[in-house]
Automatic annotation (TrEMBL):
Domain ANTAR: 129-190
Name this polypeptide is given: Response regulator receiver and ANTAR domain-containing protein
Native species: Hyphomicrobium denitrificans 1NES1
Domain of life where this protein originates: Bacteria
Keywords assigned by UniProt, alphabetized: Phosphoprotein
């Protein structure tokens, strides 16, 4: 089993210095050495931008609603794996953590020996979610491209009296000749047809 990456940059955010030591020791035990520890959350967004960590570990002990919400907003903005420890929580806070993209929200689980596996879980969940988001975006893009091509084929079939296959072949040939995507050709054709059509047909 491969060991941890010593170069992995990890930012620890914890106002409680004793609890921060628990996290730091757990990470150093696991072989991580590139650690930055922040005890003051004031201006934390700027500090994260400066450090640019690969992973963020946040310990909030017993946060109130305002602190939790500010940390959830931070989680939405940074787009990095985040493991968050709290001593107490409720169902709504857990749901909010998931919606905010917190990769691992751990209630009453801050122990030195648990830090490494929880960090691993946070990274794995973040990567899995990122893959899913990328695949979803690709699927949406392909669907939009298909819609454009279908509309363009309809315009060609109507204006030039071609079959669907012939209309697609014409789009494809034009795209190849211009070294562009078929969807780009289709979008241009649709736009041109819209400009040339009588007002009642738009």
């Amino acid at each position: 089993m491969p060991g941890p990456e010593p170069t992995l940059s990890i930012l620890i955010i914890d106002e409680n210095r004793l609890r921060a030591v628990v996290i730091e020791d757990g990470l150093r035990d696991a072989g991580y050495t590139n650690l930055t520890i922040v005890h003051d959350v004031v201006g934390i967004a700027r500090r994260i931008a400066d450090v640019s960590p690969d992973v963020i570990v946040i310990d909030l002990e017993n946060p109130n609603r305002d602190v939790l919400e500010s940390m959830f907003q931070l989680s939405r903005a940074v787009n990095r794996p985040i493991a968050m420890f709290v001593d107490r929580s409720d169902h709504s806070a857990i749901e909010a953590a998931v919606e905010a993209g917190v990769s691992a929200y751990v209630v009453d689980g801050l122990k030195r020996e648990r830090v490494k596996p929880i960090l691993d879980m946070a990274i794995s969940r973040f990567n899995a979610f990122a893959r899913m988001a990328h695949e979803l975006e690709e699927a949406r893009s392909q669907l939009e491209s298909r819609k454009l091509v279908d509309r363009a084929k309809g315009i060609i079939m109507k204006t030039r009296g071609l079959t669907e296959a012939e209309a697609y072949a014409l789009l494809r040939k034009t795209a190849m000749n211009q070294n562009r995507k078929i969807s780009e050709i289709a979008e241009g054709l649709i736009m041109a047809a819209g400009l040339l059509a009588p007002p009642e047909d738009k």
